[in-house]
Amino acid sequence: MVKRTLDEKLAILADAAKYDASCASSGGERRNSSDGKGLGSSGGSGICHAYAPDGRCISLLKILMTNFCVFDCAYCVNRVSSRVERARFTVEEVVHLTVEFYRRNYIEGLFLSSGIIRSPDDTMADMVRIARTLREQEHFRGYIHLKTIPDAAPELIEEAGKWADRLSINVELPTEEALGALAPEKSAQTIRRAMADVRVRREASKDKSHRGTKAARFAPAGQSTQMIVGADGASDGMILANASQLYSSYKLGRVYYSAFSPIPDSSAALPLIRPPLMREHRLYQADWLMRFYGFDPAEIAPKTGMLDLEVDPKLAWAIAHRALFPVDVNRAPREMLLRVPGFGTRSVQRILDARRHRTLRYEDLLKIGCVLRHAQPFITLPGWSPRALPDAEHLRARFAPPPEQMSLF
Amino acid sequence: MRRVQLPRIGTVAAWRREARNLAAEGVPPEAILWHVGDQSADLFMASPPGPTGTATTLTLPRDAVASIEKALCHSDPERFARAYGLVLRLSRRDLRWGDRSDPALYRLLAQEKAVRRDIHKMHAFVRFREISPPDAPRRAFAAWFEPDHPIVEAATPFFAKRFGDMDWVIATPTLTARFEDGTLSYHETQNRTPPPDDATEALWRTYFAHIFNPARLMVSAMTSEMPRKYWKNLPEADLIPDMIRTAPARARAMQDAAPTLPLDHIARLRLDRPALPETDGLTFGTLKPALDACRRCPIGYCATQAVAGEGPAGARLMIVGEQPGDAEDLSGRPFVGPAGQVFDRCTAAAGLDRRAAYVTNAVKHFKYESRGKVRLHQRPNGHEVAHCRWWLTQEIDLVKPTLIVAMGSTAALALTGSDAGITTRRGKIEEGADGIPILITYHPSYILRLRQGDEAAAAKAQLTDDLRLAVGYLARLA
To answer: To the nearest whole percent, how much of chain A has pLDDT over 90?
Structure first.
């Protein structure tokens, strides 16, 4: 076989990596290179250095170490039975690309994932070697995100956490049954246990000994995971319930939802569909409601239920709970203000701050940054009264896109 | 009219100085004309100093200072006068910082936001090109960037922290930032030619073209975050129109292509699917994997793993708790969390060696309810206890204990079939289903739940007494 150039390898291995949604580079340890002895900085909010026409941000150099893989996951472009072109980076090539891209301010760091070659331990060891070379040889202080292989040996995970800012393990599919059917080599048990292991190690790394010596660092930016949406029959309620379990059990920073997207060379086990992008968007909105707005997954979508694709989940909840509205903006507690459509966490904080000094009027909400088009039917305060709330159908019709005549052809 | 000249480099710091002096003199905002850069004399140059009002010492909340300094990097020529008026009112307590109903403050905060965004975009979209001279000790890079606002001084310290080991120049239409040997300096821009080509840009363009998924075309999401005005200085941006144009056809082609059959040789590459563990003829070694796979009741789907008992094979004493908790679920070992610590203290006080006993739970998976970032323990129901009773029986058959201590009502239910009040039953030995004597006592987490110190101490003493009873019982039989 003709030896591939770096450019060809980059093309193949970027193509193989694009189905991972995560590109976060925020949080974690504050580092910089103002001492002149290293390269890079991290901590604080992440930066998206470019956007592709799919609307996704490009913050990290997201590549696979190799797209050779012995697993046969039906949804994956790199499964063993796929006929895609294969390539493999050497350690030096990944290090070179990361450092040269970083120096030109193209990226915040590296997100390295890999197909499983030979054995999980071999693969993980190679990935750890890349992270170690970047840190020790290149004095790279930017962001590193390693995709962890669930079955890898504990020493390798330990070392991965030492060099990387974030570790992630994908749960892939929302239910154990779907994982068993579509990803025969993967086990939900092993994945959950690996996430538990990361949580335990992270908590241990934050402890101080009785003398005050700090434990070794371990993935300071936490762990995250990804779930594919639309490849199996799981309902939104199941997906959200599962996500909330993952957040509470393993203290995940994020759960990413990735709409199942057509891949080149599909498997007969899983017919291609148009990616359910709106569903993915609604799931992210629901996820935010769970994490920042005090919603319970069961409130947003019942176990077997789906999210309303036409109106956002907060609005849908408010329409279904009309009896709790209108809310008096000058008196309602924080928890209730957070449930008003059109009020974000920041505007709620501003309302609470301003309320301490004077009574708010309707005009003030505009300045505060509330989306009043959504909030109007649900609030009352001097200068605004919603009068009687219309019934659910009419209320929903105000926000949902107008019905469309079905095409006759 | 008073005319204040601010330099083009160090504008914000100069404004701060001037504002402090003017406030101390008591010059009202309407009597000042602010200017940036060296401008020739104008109409008001000769006019005498205007009226002076009351002198004000400037004292501001800390976040106000940061916001005002950011807002002063806006391109609006009115910004200096507005900020001066605001700091006077804030210092005199005529205005509350953060009150957005005030039009001037609202405007300033809006401009601060615009400047922050502009700085953020500069951090994101500056593209360096290498200009290292041969055999230089430090590598050198240069970039050309066009921000909307005069933000060079506010935005470039970021690059100094990030690229500490290389020299770089960022030129903008007004100012140029230069970082050489660890020192950052600012100059008026002289050279407006963009830096020369860089071979690495070809690799970056390859990456940009290939990380794009044509099946999820969302152009507006891209342009809202990467507006077209930035494109001309981005090496990857000229690929975008073609990527958008061909995307629908590429996505359709993927969907239309029939699924391919796997190649013959891949059967050899594939890993064997792990076999399900056997549940017949369990041993201590196969107990844990078999338990992990158990889905007789729904608890197992949510837990990390099953927690099997721990202890020597021939233990004479078996201690049964309720179910694993958060810590046990993560580590896979019984009684290691807060309740486990209470348990350890009680066994130590009772003179019982925990390692000599077989310690397990009536239910093997953790049943919980997610509440934000924590998991709240949920009591297993009768069905779940009944399903898990099968596993407990397996463990009893393997260990063959002389005495079993049941801690709490769930363990008592599993072992005796009755979950009647523990308070009346504790400290007594009952006959178990298999004829093995069962000693009933409190669960250690009951002690954790008791709020009052006395009650908790009493319950703890009772639990210790009961464990001591178990030790005595076994000693008498031995």
So the answer is: 70
Q: What is the structure's pLDDT at B275? A: 62
**B217:A70 CB<8 A:** no
Euclidean distance between CA atoms A15 and A77, whole angstroms = 9
Q: List chain A domain ranges.
A: 6-300, 313-399
Asked whether the beta carbons of B338 and B327 are under 8 A apart, the reply is: yes
Give chain B positions within 8 Å (CB) of A15: 210-211
Query: Chain A to chain B, count of Cβ pairs less than 8 Å apart?
Result: 247
* Same structural domain, B296 and B387: yes
B156 in contact with chain A, both atoms CB, cutoff 8 A: no
For residue range B273-321, what is the model confidence (pLDDT) as tens digits? 556 666 677 888 888 989 988 888 889 888 999 999 999 988 999 999 9
On the question of pLDDT at B409 being above 90, the answer is: yes
Residue B371 contacts A where some CB pair is shorter than 8 Å: yes
Q: Which residues of A touch B374 (CB under 8 A)?
A: 248
Task: Give the residue from chain A lying closest to B104, CA to CA.
Answer: A367
Write down the ipTM of this complex: 0.94
Q: What percent of chain A has pLDDT over 70?
A: 98
Fold of A6-300: TIM Barrel (3.20.20)
Domain count for chain B: 4
Residue B429 within a domain: yes
Task: Determine contact: A298 vs chain B, CB below 8 A.
Answer: no
- DSSP secondary structure letters along B140-160: EEEEE---SSS-HHHHTHHHH
For residue A130, what are the contacts with CB-CB under 8 A and spacing of at least 6?
Answer: A65, A91, A94, A95, A110, A112
Return the residue matching tokens 């001279």: B133
Is the CB of B126 inside 8 Å of chain A's CB atoms?
Answer: yes
Give the pLDDT confidence score for residue B48 in this predicted structure.
58
Enclosing domain of residue B239: 203-256
* B67 three-class SS: helix
The more confident residue out of A141 and A399 is A141
Residue B131 shares a structural domain with residue B118 = no
Let me know whether B116 and B132 are in one domain: no
Arithmetic mean of pLDDT, B230-242: 94
Beta bridge partners of B370: B375
- Are B440 and B301 part of one and the same domain? yes
pLDDT of residue A43: 84
Q: Which among B143, B163, B331 has the least Cβ separation from residue A200?
A: B331
Residues 209-268 of chain A whose Cβ lies under 8 A from any Cβ of chain B: 241, 244-245, 247-249, 251, 259, 261-268
Probe site for chain B from A81, A198, A281 (most B CB atoms < 10 A): A81
Give the relative orientation of helices B79-91 and B103-125 as an angle to the nearest 10 degrees.
Answer: 120
Q: Are residues B32 and B116 in the same domain?
A: yes
